[in-house]
Specification:
The chain is about 55% helix and about 10% strand. By secondary structure, it is mainly alpha-helical.
Length: about 210
């Protein structure tokens, strides 16, 4: 702990210089963070993480953590969004998947004039759908635990997309099998999730070797 305090003291006195056209201007003091590529950054990150976890240990069982940011105490919440993913206190992915589905529907409505335009070729609309909508939905799906409930929701969401792109109303009483025949393919969402998860698992296994 003393060595980490000493390292933090060294970091407080750091300065940086930005080279411009082979000229070296006056150095600037680093007031927050650390310079890029510093070998001490991982140790400092681990140190701060350990301090935060020790402070947050008191919030177990519904208590409040004694953590302050800019003089204001941080509240204990049930869920929050980080890097586009919704994290919940129980560690489950249900809220994150629902959040992704909501964002994907919003992206679909923003481009509805193209995705539901009958003047455009259906294959072109499918490519636009896979380009502009699916990346929002499938972000981080490599870490999802696809339970039966999640698979049913993904299958229903895919039908929701296809029926609007094919301009099929719910009053037309068209079955899901007929929708897939008109779309000219198999289930795309579930297959994409499985392929990404298998690919990610392969990368992890090769990295261990």
């Amino acid at each position: 702990m003393r060595s980490m305090s000493a390292n933090m003291g060294l970091c407080r006195a750091k300065q940086a210089v930005v080279r411009l056209d082979n000229e070296m201007p006056e150095p600037v003091s680093i007031c927050r963070g650390d310079r890029q590529g510093c070998v001490m950054s991982p140790d400092l990150f681990s140190y701060y993480s350990e301090v935060i976890l020790r402070e947050a240990d008191g919030c177990r069982g519904g208590g409040s953590a004694n953590i302050f940011l800019d003089g204001a105490p941080l509240k204990t919440v049930r869920s929050f969004v980080s890097l586009g993913s919704k994290l919940s206190a129980d560690g489950r992915l249900h809220e994150d998947i629902c959040n992704r589905m909501s964002h994907a529907k919003s992206a679909f409505f923003k481009r509805k004039s193209l995705l539901c335009n009958p003047k455009l070729d259906l294959g072109m609309r499918f490519r636009l759908w896979r380009c502009y909508v699916l990346p929002i939905l499938l972000y981080g799906c490599e870490s999802w635990t696809t339970l039966e409930t999640g698979r049913r929701k993904m299958a229903a969401l895919e039908m929701w997309f296809l029926r609007r792109m094919l301009r099929i109303k719910w009053t037309d009483k068209v079955s899901n099998e007929e929708v897939m025949v008109r779309a000219g393919g198999q289930r795309y969402l579930l297959n994409s999730i499985v392929k990404r998860q298998v690919h990610f698992f392969g990368l992890l296994m090769r990295k261990q070797d």
